[in-house]
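Board notes (copied after class):
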Amino acid sequence: MKKRARKGKFLSFLSATLLCFPSFSFAGLNSQFFRAVSRGDLSRVKSLIQEGADINAVDKAGDTALMQIASNGHADMPQLWNDTGFIRPDFIFPRFHKMSTRHFSFSISQKQMRVARFLIQNGENLNAKNVYGRTALMLGAKYGQAGLVELLLNHGADADLSDENGRTALDYAYQTEHQQVAALIEDYHRHPPSPGVREDAERLSNKQNLTREDVSKIALRAAQSAQNSTQKDIARRLDVLAKEIESLKKQSKLAKKTKTIKSDVDAPDFQEPPRREDFALVVGVEKYAGKIPHSEFSQRDATAVKKYMLALGVPSRHIRFLLNETATKSDLAAYLEDWLPKNVGKKSRVFFYFSGHGAPNPDTGQAYLVPFDGDPEFLEKTAYPLKRLYADFLKIHAHRVIVILDSCFSGAGARSIIRPGIRPLSTRVRPGFVPGLGQIAVLSAAQDDQTAEVIKSQGHGLLTYYFLRGLNGKAFNRKKIITLGSLYNYLAPEVENAAELENHSQNPQILPRSQLSKIFPIVLR
């Protein structure tokens, strides 16, 4: 009987610990969102929210992302804790229940704190409760997360809320003997922030430049909210408010910049039936590491193309979207040489889209795609050769592979870079495309010695804009279908004419030219 009892307790414990792993509890974007939060991967968190992940998503226990950070990935399992906040050794070690207890404290990384700050600034509910009635503040107090507790309190978390057993955040801090956290919460009760301070920050942040008078008003308001505080308290509150104002200003500028550009191709106006065999890898690199200049509108390009892939019937689970920091050379290699070969079948159509810088190697004449961490001085080590890209696609044995490159390899223009000291347009590159690759079709933005430009009024690269416009209906042929051939026949003259209006030459290319009849009849919609 004792063995059965111990076995039953062990199985209960095992079931509870499975809550620690998000992949067992939820699926889709929210699952990826929680994993990115636990890693402290801010860029991935941002991109997933942009893709549709819910910032207020909860797991099986009702924990939000902030709660996950507060517990540092450890599941909230009350059945393992006694009334004093300590783990029950008799639960795990029934034969040694007299051993001394010990409370747990987990440190949050700086990466996780940056994620927490982003979640708070972008509207996660600070006072949400999980199934046990606990808030992120309570969990932060329980696990001794002083920095997170202070951040939550400064942004409006309610320290007076209680869980299903009537315990507050302060109770948890006392029970787990986290004195620093307890002191923070007690200070909050003594000097609660003025409810008007954030409103002042939001109002003043709408101005492009804060005057001395504005700063004086903020300082006065903050001082009034801490009139009984020490000078140190006031200085701390002013510092918090200053950071909040700066954050709000950045958000306001970003929102205004985003609203100024709206294109007629940002969203598709069609929806094709699902094509369960198809896959797409969409890459957009606008911001680069180091001193590489931005590739203007590449983020907007990739975001729009992803929407069109969905409209063409590619299942969302078969689309990988790599943006800026998530588009490193190792990321490209992982998806091209591991993910695609493992999943693509003989009936699959594979779409590969890249918007960002291309680069020529003046010594070898090879052409490269420049990922986020690329360096024009060390292309062989940091960039992705087109020759390798096409070899990757040959290995997957897909029915068709359609490659769209809104880049150029001349070393000049909006979407190409070159090693310092080399004159642009002086190197004739070899694209790396081998004639006879029957299942691969490549649509590139320009000839090897030309530049790929953008259309600023639409906020897209020239090739991408007319590529999407064609898919939206402009490229229908006489049979009222859109093929890769009819799409190219539409966009090529449109891009050439638009480029001429800006006093430069840009002629989109499609390869292979020797097998037009076999490649071009690919029906897109």
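Comment from the instructor: The longest strand covers residues 349-355. The chain has a mean pLDDT of 77.
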